[in-house]
Write a structure and sequence with these properties.
globular, 12 strands, 8 helices, alpha/beta, single chain, Purple Acid Phosphatase, chain A, domain 2
Length: 256
């Protein structure tokens, strides 16, 4: 049985379509989405529609939850970036219908999947206890044990939120992050964080002989991504487009 895991789409339809096309070629049995479907991207409604059409389980991301709670405030210190995020959020919120909001309300805190060979997979957004907690390769095992203390025993844990692909051990279990479909983060040699045109996801496969995990990356045409962003009426679309970097993953390092 093959399960594709996608996360952090953030309204980027060009990358989402590229990733879904690649997933179809792999002939997976099911898909799980780890949330953050629409926020801060140029095509929120189209991305939400794509996910709805998949009829797959969706985890509640921290940005998804904002559209239901009406929470305001971005960033601890405010400033230009926080102002931009707030305007993008308000623009997206203004486009959502009651039907869209009802669909977002079906997103779950966690999704549990039983795989062949008695393999169990637990999916979440940030950590099993909070969609705002961040897990990276640098998170201590002590801190992770605290985050996972009430999640039960599972062979594989899958979470998003960091926009960086990761695979690490936690005791006898494996913790993975499929990366981001729509806003994969990397850092240039000079220290600037950018998005790279590489739609990311993971495939978990299990059978009676064991389990396998594949971390996948799909090349995305950066010109199409930028053109789509600038063609929308997303606030600060020019700043959103400027965060995309044409370099390959070989020329940047992942941000943790």
């Amino acid at each position: 049985m093959k399960v594709a895991i996608i996360s952090d789409i953030h309204g980027n339809l060009v990358s989402l379509d590229a990733v879904l096309s690649d997933i179809r070629r792999k002939e997976v049995d099911s898909i799980v989405c780890l949330g953050d479907v629409i926020a801060t991207g140029p095509r929120p409604l189209e991305c939400l529609s794509r996910i709805r059409d998949l009829s797959c389980p969706v985890v509640m991301g921290n940005t998804d939850q904002r559209f239901l709670s009406g929470e305001k405030g971005f960033g601890r210190n405010g400033g230009k970036e926080a102002h931009m995020l707030e305007k993008m959020h308000d623009w997206t919120a203004s486009k959502l219908t009651n039907s869209d909001l009802d669909f977002i309300r079906t997103f779950r805190p966690t999704v549990s999947v039983k795989l062949p060979g008695d393999v169990s997979l637990l999916c979440f957004h940030g950590s099993p206890r909070s969609n705002r907690e961040l897990i990276t390769s640098a998170t201590t095992e002590e801190k992770m044990n605290e985050m996972f203390s009430e999640s039960g025993e599972h062979h594989i844990y899958a979470g998003g939120h960091s926009h960086v692909q990761m695979l690490r051990r936690l005791g006898t279990s494996v913790v993975i992050n499929p990366g981001s479909v729509g806003l994969p983060v990397a850092v240039l040699p000079g220290g600037r964080a950018v998005n790279v045109p590489s739609g990311q996801y993971a495939v978990v496969e299990a059978d009676e002989n064991g389990m396998r995990i594949e971390m996948c990356r799909v090349n995305v045409d950066i010109e199409s991504v930028v053109k789509d962003g600038l063609a929308s009426d997303l606030p600060y679309a020019d700043a959103w487009a400027a965060d995309w970097h044409p370099g390959s993953q070989a020329n940047v390092r992942q941000k943790n």
